[in-house]
């Protein structure tokens, strides 16, 4: 099983320069320790993920300080962007990194994000899947027709040309079974998460994805079997007690921030907004306890070894280890060192 590093943290305003320094330091360490990839998201206007407005921009910086680790968008909200611009930006990163890029396409979910493209909100799912196919064509060097400034249809080939012949693509899912099956039909890899679903639910979705992928027509450059990547909050401590003591407070604070962000989404209804502080605290504690029971890599090396073996048995090919949920930089680095040692032992 591949192990990667994922960033998606919630941060206090005003500490952004230090956050970027930490990302560079942690990524260099992950590169040295042999992790497969580093994932950076696209988020806008929220506490959660506030330092990640453009994964291509940050990946370009990471390309210049790393040698072998892959640089992936986890995720890129495709309906917010013109597919030509996506192809251009990631071709730059691909050249800077000598072919180490990958992109996971998301449909987008938070209504506030779409102040950048308000007309794309209602049909964001359809737009994302349509433009994913366009992105594949542009990356392959095909001319694609678009409307120019004079209202004419013109054929355009994106420049610069990428270093790699094929752009590795994932589809991001928050858990909707339809998205798992759509990813299979499009023959993309899939980026999901363990949180918010049971092991049995996740097993069913992975099975449906595998079936859809196997039945789908071949796409140029795609492998016969797709990659299932699952995000999991990660801190490998010296013992279960130490790991949970260090990670407990930061993770609960992160979960509270995430629920608060959901409450401001106009498309989600008002259920989350109606929660009192006491109810929010109870919900956060319940989520934390449930997550410790299954789906995280929070614990001793032995506990995390068992969790990784369980995820592999489930059909997971790669774990994107979410490390920046509130721990200090030194703690993250120490946890990665122990995780790398664990990977070598497996």
TrEMBL record:
Q: Which domain of life is it from?
A: Bacteria
Ranges where the Luciferase-like domain occurs: 1-317
Keyword annotations for this protein, in alphabetical order, are: Monooxygenase, Oxidoreductase
The protein, known as: MupA/Atu3671 family FMN-dependent luciferase-like monooxygenase
